[in-house]
Amino acid sequence: MTSDGGQPTLSVRGLKTHFFTREGVVKAVNGISFDVAPGEVLGLVGESGSGKSITGFSVLGLVDAPGRIVEGEILFQGRDLVKLREDELRKLRGSKIAMIFQDPMMTLNPVLRIDTQMVEAVLAHRDISRERALEICREALVKVGIAAPDERLVSYPHQFSGGMRQRVAIAIAFLNEPDLIIADEPTTALDVTIQGQILYEAQNLCRDTGTAMIWITHDLAVVAGLADQISVMYAGRIVEQGSVERVLDAPAHPYTAGLIGSVPGRNQRGQRLFQIPGMTPSLLNLPDGCAFRSRCPQADGTCDVEPPENRTRDGRLVRCVRPLVAQQTDGTAA
């Protein structure tokens, strides 16, 4: 349930996505749960390899062999996507649920003109004329900062820069005003000015149409200005979850505190940049207990057991036996 008692657009419960390799089982996503309400932006953050992108692919049913969802529910407007057939999922993709990939060449066909690709994306889900579809495509390109849209529509992807291709991919995701957008680090290749414009349009879309959005990124500055809620992932699990203001102002998990401390600009002039020591553990061979304990400055013998998800006094969830902010006195677990 959402904070106002309504039904969330997306509700993920106990999701596990594993990859079955010759070396062993890679637990890329290992039992995560979260909700995204209509009009809300959830920031999904963490280091590379934490499971962020696989979470997005799992929601859309885009996990290829040897990977598969082994457990959990993905409820989209009350329907469990895990149980849907491929043809049913195909009807949802691009209309009700859209994804912006990190690499725009995963979205764009190099041998088709931009207008062909965009118009097909509209006509596949709407019963409108081609002329109206072209008008919608033109408006979408303008929203993402592409000048001379008529000229760009008749161009091919190879005639665009990398940043321009990414803007086209973002425009395609916006075309049908979906109920859920999953954005996988979509502004990484864009300059700061265009990035700001995309973030502004994303916020407007969510506010005006009630679109829910999952914004996958490693950039905490983007999350701070865009998201309402934040989920911090580490080694396939969510280690902290709550409102952006509470999590970023007073992190409860040592890993979240380390990510915030690693942001450039927080150090005084002449000081070395802070970094979290060590490396993310292999998902093939996760250690017993807390996966972060070998890198945690607060780790002790109590971290040898698997930490539960505790709820703090301010309402957030944190997977740590020694959180940096106080737990509820009754130790209520999620």
Automatic annotation (TrEMBL):
Keywords: ATP-binding, Cell membrane, Membrane, Nucleotide-binding, Transport. GO terms for molecular function: ATP binding; ATP hydrolysis activity. SMART domains: AAA. It comes from the Bacteria. Residues 12-260 form the ABC transporter domain. It is a peripheral membrane protein. One of its GO terms (biological process) is peptide transport. One of its GO terms (cellular component) is plasma membrane. It is found in: Cell inner membrane. It holds the Pfam family oligo_HPY. Belongs to the ABC transporter superfamily. This is ABC transporter ATP-binding protein. It comes from Pelagibius litoralis.
